[in-house]
User: Fold these one by one.
Assistant:
Number 1:
Amino acid sequence: MPLFGTLDIDQAMQTAPTMADLTPETMELPSATVLQVSYEVAHEPALTITPPALHPSIPPYVTFNLYHHPSSPLGPFDLVTVRLIVRAGIRPRGLLLQAFCSDEGATEHLATRWGYRVRTADITQQQRHDRISATVSIDGSRALGFALTESEPVSGGDLELFDNLHLTQLPDQGPVIVQVDPSYQYAQAQRGVPQLDVFDAEVLGVQGVEPVYPIVAVSCVADMTLSAPRFVLDPTQPAVKGTKRVG
Amino acid sequence: MKFGIFFELSVPRPFAENESLVYHNALEQVRLADELGFDQVWAVEHHFLEEYSHCSAPELFLTACAMQTTNIRVGHGIATCVPQFNNPIRIAERAAVLDVLSGGRLEMGTGRSATWTELGGFEANLDDTKKTWDEIVHALPQMWMQERYSHDGLAFSMPPRAVLPKPVQRPHPPLWVAVSSPGTEDDAADRGLGCLGVNFTTFAAQERQVVEYRKRIQHCEPAGAFVNDQLNTINFLFCHDDSEVGVSTGRQMIGQFQYLAGQLGMAKEVYPTRAYLTAGLLSGARRQASSPGDLKEPPEGIAIGSPDQIIRELKKWEATGIDRVQFLLNTSEIIPQQQVLDSLRLFAAEVMPHFTDDSAATQSRAKAAQGEAA
């Protein structure tokens, strides 16, 4: 049997968001720019931040994602996520470790309606012909900086952005992992060389993430849709046993 | 139709306790398969694939197989033709030694790997693997046939040298390519290579593949000195007198295999490139589950159950026109060794006698040839 994660769920729940319910209104996010930088991470620490419901991927890796939303029902905002790629049963998923949002209202909405573990931070994003980059600054100091360089066009169909898993709690159920499946209508996509310029795991609140090897960077412009969750997992049971369809 | 056995050599944790057991159980299965009249034993080449496959030096395992058997043919299923994994000269040398030691029993499967776990581990260029495989599969027979060989290419370059020893089989062992994603069967046909199916497919898909392959190979430009126009498909085997026991035990093995395969980082999922358009064998496995919690149904045509059930399924495969079926016998030792050996014995006694001729494959070749003539 593959390895399971060893995250202490009780401890993790102390800082987890609470979702109001599992029926958020569908959110249209047109013309989003998405940047995703993938890095392999150290194996042992990654296990300690993976819930017992999930397996680490072989090899374990994280994605640093920027979502630049020029318009949304919440107004324009930028979101940066740090995700650990895991397996729910045999399916690859992106377990959200921490998110950062440029707008306070959007931060509140993403946490309470979608289960994002998210805090407000200063986010910058730059798009040049040969480089797309993002930074996250907390309390005035830069904690994360990542980029795609040497870009070359690919097809949107070549991209695998994976659905998200959010460790959160529901008022009447306690700890759950909620699967949030954004859909993408791609307008353009590119691939390039990944760069991780700044990474402070402690300041970001993602202790256990130790990047060891660059994989790839991808970027796209897409119309995104966030739809109500379809699946909920018990964080303490193997996903093949503890997954429930809810939508 | 001919039957073979196929090894991933999957190892349950803890590895240190179980690796030796898995290897020696496999060798015992090979010895028995040889005695029972199985035609081939194949071994994969995989690296870093925890639990799923610990078969990183297949040339050594296959040599051990050859030295403990008399008739069974030994197949690289496959040797990875990516220069960062294997210097092509070393592939040619090791394969020739295996052919010599086995007395000319080598089947030479080729391929290019489909996981980021492996390709990333060797820092291979994912965009180039199809090109380098093509280059190497053309170079291998020349290294074996020419007294001295030189090469200048993308995958490797070398001044004139005698690549030694030469294989026993003349002009060279049969060449195959692993087919795990759509389109590779065309690559096989165009180069006159045997089609080593390593994906679990459906009857309908297999039938289409056979027709297209047979038609296309009529016009091939062989990579080697001759055309190997055989189609080999993969299956699971667990044969038991009690149908229920056979099916339930077989399903456990299949479920475990799919589960382990699902943990790997497939190239397509990790690194976007036109060189990997599907997730290989995982495409099929994941299609069978509609949600993360689903238990997966085995693919159709699987050789598990009673001898009669297995004969029925294999007759359907035979009717598609394939030449060979190779069986995975176990996964992570989920089936006790004695039961695996009993399953092989029962299959040989009750099922094999129903497949003594190759008329279906012959007819499918003839049909393709007639179609071309018309």
Number 2:
Amino acid sequence: MSKIKKNLLNKVNEIRRLINEPLLLLIIILISFSLILFILFPLFKVIQLSLTSEGHLSLDIYNYIFHHQWLTKTFFNSILLGVIVASLATLIGFIFAFALNRTDISFKPFFRVFAMLPIISPPFMLTLSVILLLGRNGIITRHLLGLKNFNIYGLKGLVLVQVMGMFPIAYLVLDGILKSINPELEDSAMNLGASWGSVFSTVTLPLSVPGIASAWLLIFVTSLADFANPMVLSGKFDVLSVQAYLQFTGMFNMPLGSALAILLLIPSLIAFLFQKYWVGKKSYITVTGKPYSSRIFTVKRSVKYFIMSFCGLISGMVLLFYIIVIMGSFFKLWGLDYSLTLDHFKYSWDIGLKTIKDTVTLSAIATPFTGILAMIIAFLVVRKNFIGKKSMEFVSMLSFAVPGTVVGIGYILAFNKPPFLLTGTGLILVLCFIFRNMPVGIESGVAALSQIDPAIEEAATNLGADSTHIFRDITLPLIQPAFFAGLSYSFVRCMTAVSAIIFLVSARWNHLTILILSETEIMRLGPACVLCTVLIIVVLVAISLIRKITEKRPITTFG
Amino acid sequence: MNKSVKTNQKSIILKNLTKTYKGASGEEEVIAVDNISLKVEPGELLTLLGPSGCGKSTTLRMIAGLEIPDSGEIYLEDKLINNLPANKRDTAMVFQSYGLFPHMTIAENIAYGWRYRKMGKKEVNKKVKDIINLIGLEGLENRAPGNLSGGQQQRVALARALVIEPSVLLFDEPLSNLDAKLRVQMRTEIRRIQRQLSITTVYVTHDQTEAMSLSDRIVVMNKGEIEQIGLPFDIYNYPKSKFVADFIGSINFIKGKVEKVSSSLVTIEIYGKKFTINYQERKLEPENKVLVITRPESIKIKQEENADFFGLVSRATYLGPTVEYEVDINKGVKISIIDYSPKQNNIYREGEKVGITLLPEHLYILPREAD
């Protein structure tokens, strides 16, 4: 049989299988359609606008950007910031992961909490703290050190907040990597005569390199996409995400805004693809789903105490940042009048109550849809064969790499006229949440599914269940932990989103983060602190609620 | 006891079945099953036996509908079932890893198949109860599969397949996760139940002992093709190819040459000695080079007197009930022998000179390719 004929035959077989299950077919079509509409179409609109000048196709805008130094500088500033932040944050993340997995330092549970905490805080909470601590009226700069002209705004402030906010990403990636390095490898090196230092440099470190690269690239992308911190703290250090926003909404120069967004998209996309298809393939780690019990190196005392004080310092800073925000809620006027008051709470209640309700409502609506959709896509990608499966996987993961600014602009451009008139509605926010937060759910769903013996689902098929029954009866219950983890994550992301939704909020549907941002910008720091605290509390309550539900029915999987 | 399980005998016919896979490296095509045809008789237990990668599991999965053949036809009795989706086929399967649903109890696992078949709740409960009794799972109904031993999990998998009263029962190496003792026990159990219900059964295994003890007929497969179909006795004693001879048990291949052919007798010369063998499967001519095959247990070893060949014992392994020898009969031509009744005074040591005798009724002939 010729190859072409055989390929054709396989396609025919695939189609026949699908036709046998019309519901599955319908779901695949619906998902494909919504991925195109809510991920690709907005992206296309941004690209289209950036390439249009006076109604026809041209590169005029890009030409304009490359001939104006302040615009090119914006681009290089973003890259510079990304590189510095990614490098420092990866280093800190690695030290934490190493300390917690390979040394016998004290206070491990404490360090573990502080290495994760920044993940659930709203993205610019750290900026708020930094202004309170190191700003013009900062408690450290002004009051402890008596500095009058210290300026935290600009590159150094941004590096500080982004590193502190993003090192947990590196910690999480590298923690997983170190856990999955078989300690027997390190034992054998030790057994062959290597000291712990040599073991580290010849075994542990080389095996972690793919993880380090992954973490670096992820943080680089996150730093590029960060909007809220630079919006408040960048000073004269312009970055792309903020400039794109200012041009698009402030100056009403929509083509220029779009083009800057595209310039932001390109390095993010390159880093993402590099991470996914090159670094990912370089990995020495085989996922077995069984983390090894970690190996403790008996490091020198001096090294141990150095590592411990380093982790202590970073954790202390994280803790300080949180405490300062809570304190900020109670002081009358930061920097000038430190008398205690509840005024900020009253004020926040007045201006913020409706926004808080809206934010929670929209997040609560978006979260289950995100979770279910992510699990369905994970199921389709891992277990089903159909034409366009690869593209479905790629597009659904793509939205992870697209900076929020690009998405926000895309949604404004794509959904501002019939038949897709959605701007100003709550629906557009919900849709934006769903399609932006899906990738992490998909990843955890895919990981959970690949741990499950396909024979379990085949057995169900064999006994008469079709794909929809299997998903409901077997798959979903079995990947429940991944599902709920996805729910927690996506709820946090909904509550703390800024960069995309700043384009999409309206007088009717505002978002808490946007409210905090505007309070911070007009230096009403007290209410900003109150709202930040409320946001953190809501997130913590939601996470523990979801965790409680998960713990109800533990599933014992077996081999 | 099994009144509720009706006798349901149907044949399976495979016609020119072919299945290829894309290799791991992309475009390279791997032929898993290469144009095989066979018929499973109603009520029989047919084993697909072969090394891993021979296509036996793929064949089984095509019958179940879990794989779709590239070409060829699958019939259940006289009905073409190629286009029948897996969940609509009446072919219950017991999986190698059991595939039990970890989040359901044993009773829920067993009843699962009836969710997609029309039946009142009472009847289903009755069927589940009957099968639990038949398989011996009483008292475990409300346990989770994770808390069961391997053998019990295996029984649940079997019960879950049987309870839907399938026309065909499929086994995919069901015993490979059990320890040796349990394997023998379950094997007997499977045979007993299959006999009792006489369901047409296809059983996949790479274990020749399992195949021998269970099967009505055995299909030996290699590289996607069928090497031989036959009764266990015939497969063992009259293998049609070197592969089959070698795969089933251990065997000696001895080079020989045809000297004389009469109607049903062939005289073969082996290292100067002549043996007359009853053989008519293939047409042989004098001077044909052949392989004479004989099992180690069919060779007599004794002190040199009137033996066929003489040689030094190059290896002797005492195993208790048996002794295994390797005797060098002609400059490196080694013959394996198993003595099933070793006695104090006839156990030979390595280096000792012995005589061996071949029994003509236990010799069989295979063609020899160019050597």
